[in-house]
Amino acid sequence: MGSSQWRRARPVLFTITITFALFIFLRSSILTFRSSAFSQSDSYKLDHRSEILSKCAYTHAKPGPPPHFHARTQSDRYAENTKPVLVRNATIWTAANDGHEVLTGDLLMHRGVVIGDVPLSMIQQLKSENVNLEIVDAHGAWVTPGIVDLHSHIGVGSAPELDGTDDTNSYKAPILPWLRSIDALNTHDASYELAMAGGVTTAQILPGSADNIGGQAFIMKLRPTADRSPSSMLLEPPYTLNGSHFDRSLTPRWRHMNAYDITRLDSAWNFRAAYDHARKLRGIQDDFCAKAESGSWDDVAGKTFPEDLQWESLVDVLRGRVKLSVHCYEAVDLDGIVRLTNEFEFPVASFHHAGETYLVPELLKKTWGGTPAIALFASNFRKKREAYRGSEFAPRVLAEHGINVVTKSDHPVVNSRYLLHEAAQAHYYGLDPALALLSVTYTPATAMGMGHRIGMLKADVVIWSSHPLSLAATPTQVYIDGIPQLSLPGRHVAKGPTTSPRTSDFDSEKVAALKGALFVNVSGLYMRGGGSTGVVHVSEKVGSVGVEDGRLVCVGQCSDFAEGAVDIVDLEGGTITPGLTSFGTPLGLMEIRLEPSTNDGSVYNLLDEDLPAVLGDKVVRAQDGLMFGGQNLLLAYRGGVTTAITAPSGTFLRGISTAFSPGAVHARVESASIVGEVALHVGISMSSRIGVSTQVAALRNMLFGESGDEVLRSVRKGQTTLVLDVESADIMATLLRLKNEYEAHSGRELHLTFAGATEAHLLAHEIARAGVSVIVTQSKPYPSTWEQRRLLAGPPITQESLVTALLKAGVNVAIGVIDEYNARNTRFEVGWSLLTSNGTIDRTTALALATTNLEKALGVQREMPQDLVAYRGGDVFEFEAKVVGVISETLGRTDLFV
Ligand SMILES: *[C@@H]1O[C@H](CO)[C@@H](O)[C@H](O)[C@H]1NC(C)=O
Ligand SMILES: *[C@@H]1O[C@H](CO)[C@@H](O)[C@H](O)[C@H]1NC(C)=O
Ligand SMILES: *[C@@H]1O[C@H](CO)[C@@H](O)[C@H](O)[C@H]1NC(C)=O
Ligand SMILES: *[C@@H]1O[C@H](CO)[C@@H](O)[C@H](O)[C@H]1NC(C)=O
């Protein structure tokens, strides 16, 4: 019933249509309860009574682990013939004692459960039983419980994304508590293997956030099962999985649901109407049971236990048996949900995204039933209005208010494989290390009601290459239910630091622009100019560096300089290195991605739209659309990015990129622009509505023709670089052929660069031979699209990453990033490549990846300014370091953030 109305809902009339439909629906289904309740008048048979009593008893039962769960010696998920594994000499972070317990010793995985503090007798017994005991020597490596992702869409929004695999959302109505993510779980999602390679062992699969109540979530372990079915991947699914007939004498299991607060006025009413409906049903059930349980059988004669498959899950929310995840960002929305929980008296397990929670901690504590856990990104903010005020300091602030903090992936928004990196970033911005590790283990496990099974060392174990909060910590082995998941354990993983990174002090960050300053206790100085990479290591143990008007005036011997009244900044052994160049994001052209009024907007698609005549054959120039003073620019600058190179946004012929200083106040500042016109950008993609061969034909026509904007002529003459956004190896092969054709035809060299280039490793040598540069914009690869599916996963799955494979082949390689929020993290992206390269990349090369190599790839011809960045406490590529100064030759000043 009512379904035809849902189906009729058109997106344009979404809210109104749906609210109306909901109203009709609620009225008629309440009537249904009344009429169906009376059918016969004869007294009930005894077995019928006992069924009613068992259903009534079940309405009072509280979910949790079954009795004696903790005494189990074998997991219900144990797979036959799994060898027991003894991990020796590990540094074991157990998650116990509020995340402070670290033990040194051995642990045993046997029959799908972990046994710590292994008694010798047990080992002897296993040996005597002739069990094939596998012994792994951890050599002191860190071991943690498997990583738990509280918010993932693995399997429902699969990679590579195909029209036939996106089952994240239903668009039929805003209130859909009866839908279930399990019904859409694709077992072929490429993300399972990748996520496990990051140590993720369990994820809560939420339906998407297009609806107010998107449906029921399910918890799954990511490992493949013998059954190969989605159901067999579930962890402790509720009995309602199979319908309403189950043994009600069992302890109920936790259920899970997702709710989202979207368009405010209507959303609030949608929620209230739905909960009101569920509350009525619960009332009818409770009245019925009160009569049955008091033996007044005549009062319920002829009636059945009042049930409704569509609303039973929401009734369970009201009965406190659902771990509700609420996707909610702003103070106004949090306030509305907190009011809702008090009006209808139901608990919330976790608020997700929750960008403004750090602004309203006291409000969160007013949630009915207790303060929810808060599930956050570390630095993925500002994509939409709701996320604009997100803060990297939120985890720390919330923790200081005693609120449980979770870091989550919202996979594929953040690739689940790097979930631990979210926790590590939260730690970088001040979250206590124990809480940071708990934020991806025990805290999400308890927010799911699964603390008895996961989040501690119960069943899933990860051995790490370095301290788990250090940059680029990588698993050397991952065990799920005691089963190893990496086929070449440790083979591709270089060891890293074994201690937790010391974090910087962000407590007071004064910002000052100065004429001169003296940096003392500088351990290393790197500068542009010379060497094979264009970046040189000037010296170690520098001591002091004096700067004036954005230039170095003395190195080492600065006593004369120090006599003047200059600000002195102690770098505490940190380094000064060239400011990084950021490429690949719409930095400066886009502030809030989903708010068109804050952005430059997209260029016309030449292949798909009627071009306005007034544009003529002009190509768009990014410089004309630059906007300064945005948050992403400011944070990139403070993150050590001193040059941004941005191309216009769009498909196929995008236009001409520009290089500028993210620290400038506006575009007319004389020095804001570094290079007005950098390169010409064209995208060739299988994801376009226009065929690839048509796109290539158009490009060929542009190259071989005579007409067009002067930039085209400059590309034809080999004076301007043509940067091609391309992912597929096959398209790259075609473009290399086109380059040959053009060069043979014109007798001129065509300067080509591939950007993106996820599959470039497949033809690394051909690319090197053709003298084509590659800008890797996903140094942490992910197969979002089909044309990226043959990616090189990198350690621990493969030895080489795309960056090292291309470097090895002799390609000029650079690193870019895609998301504007992430431009500030460029140094961590490069650091990740450096630290997982097992020494095949050195520091000057790493610096070149995001400076000189990048500028070369883009065909920048001028000598770039000597903009330098001072890091306190460590090196540019380490979590230990914080940017405290930008010595900007471009802007003729030094900016301090100390
Ligand atoms: C554990 O590993 C560390 C690091 O390799 C080593 O120094 C230590 O001797 C080992 N301890 C035992 C008991 O094997
Ligand atoms: C659902 O039914 C299947 C058999 O069809 C059974 O193996 C499974 O344990 C049941 N799941 C639950 C949660 O009751
Ligand atoms: C790292 O490099 C060293 C020296 O080349 C080599 O012996 C070792 O096997 C490499 N380790 C990994 C994990 O690739
Ligand atoms: C430089 O900083 C390090 C780290 O804070 C400190 O240990 C060292 O004593 C400092 N050296 C000087 C000369 O101040």
UniProtKB/TrEMBL annotation:
One MF term in the entry's GO annotations: allantoinase activity
Keywords recorded for this protein, A-Z: Membrane, Transmembrane, Transmembrane helix
Organism field: Suillus discolor
The protein's name: Amidohydrolase-related domain-containing protein
Superkingdom, taxonomy of origin: Eukaryota
Keyword match Transmembrane: yes
Transmembrane domains' residue ranges: 12-33
SUPFAM superfamilies xref list: Composite domain of metallo-dependent hydrolases, Metallo-dependent hydrolases
GO cellular component entries: cytoplasm
Key word Membrane present: yes
Signal peptide: none
InterPro entries in UniProt: DHOase/Allantoinase_Hydrolase (IPR050138), Metal-dep_hydrolase_composite (IPR011059), Metal_Hydrolase (IPR032466)
Biological process terms in GO annotation: purine nucleobase catabolic process
